[in-house]
Design goal:
Layout (H helix, E strand, L loop, with lengths): L1 H23 L12 H9 L3 H26 L3 H24 L3 H23 L3
Helix pairs in contact: 1-3, 3-4, 4-5
Length: 130
């Protein structure tokens, strides 16, 4: 199970790195993106180069966190379990707020997966003998 969570964290890191790199490129809006008003509203906010660089930096920072968590979990390090518990649990209130504000399959799925990860890791560190 730890390796599955690690793979999930590393996949999220790869997506964030790709997003960060894309944000550092000149703004190009694909035609299919123009069809989604919510996405376009976010994209237009990123027209300011300072804002784009800030969002890219945040994406890279989160990717670094996920790489650290994923690598530690893959190596079955107890510190990585604690780090993942704290990092994931700290975002649960925001995920609950977003899921309640507007219920979507994606928001509820992310909330359930992250809550399950926290519960599993908490149980694991409490019951595993080193």
């Amino acid at each position: 199970m730890l390796r599955l969570i690690a793979a999930f964290r590393l996949a999220k890191a790869a997506l964030l790195i790709a997003a960060g790199i894309e944000l550092l490129r000149p703004l190009h809006i694909p035609e299919w993106v123009a069809r989604f008003p919510q996405v376009m509203a976010f994209v237009w906010k990123l027209e300011d180069p300072h804002r784009k660089h800030l969002v890219a930096a945040v994406a890279f920072a989160y990717a670094a966190l996920f790489i650290t968590e994923g690598t530690g979990l893959w190596l079955e390090k107890k510190w990585a379990e604690y780090l993942t518990i704290v990092a994931t649990a700290s975002f649960l209130p925001f995920e609950i707020y977003e899921a309640v504000k507007k219920v979507t399959v994606l928001r509820v799925s992310v909330l359930v997966i992250n809550a399950a990860i926290v519960i599993y890791l908490w149980w694991n560190v409490r019951h595993r003998e080193d």
